[in-house]
Amino acid sequence: MTFHDDCLVFDGHTDVPTRLWEAPADLSAELADRHIDLPRLRRGGVDALVFALYVPAALPAEAGREHARTLYRLAGEQLGSGLRQAESAEEVRRAARRGEVAAVFGLENGRPLGGPGGMDFLAECASMGARYVTLTHVASHEWCDASTGEALHGGLAPEGIPIVREMNRRGILPDVSHVSDAAVAQVLAVSAVPPVASHSSARALCDHPRNLPDDLVRDVARRGGVVMANSFPAFVDPAACRASRELIPALQAMEEAHLDDPAALAAEVERFFVDHPLPPVPLSALVDHLIHLIELGGEEHVGIGTDFDGIPQTLVGFEDVARFPDLTAALLERGVDRAGVRLILGENFLRLLAAAEKAAG
Question: Is the pTM of the predicted complex or chain greater than 0.70?
Answer without folding.
Answer: yes
